[in-house]
Amino acid sequence: MPDLLPPDLRVLSRQEVDGLMMRWQQPLVIDGEVRTCPGCGAYRDWIVFCMRDGSVWLRCRAGHETNEPRLDAAWHNRNSGPVDHWHPSLEDGLRHLGH
Question: Could you give the CA distance from residue 52 to residue 54 in angstroms, rounded to a whole number?
């Protein structure tokens, strides 16, 4: 169609990526409770992942990952900013976010 953007100007759709990630530096409070890492006890400086299936995962600076069933894609969308970069790998995304 002539009114569509050229391929190099199009962004990926949500279905074309494995998930989204954002940095959450302050303590993460869920249902009035400060969320801590079950592996090391960290309570701030999380990477929050929102996966294609809508699940939300947390990763502390030490690299421990845990599912957070009390959060969902709607929470992530309300609290994240606009997508500012696409990463070809998880490692590249973590480096971009300072982890």
Answer: 5
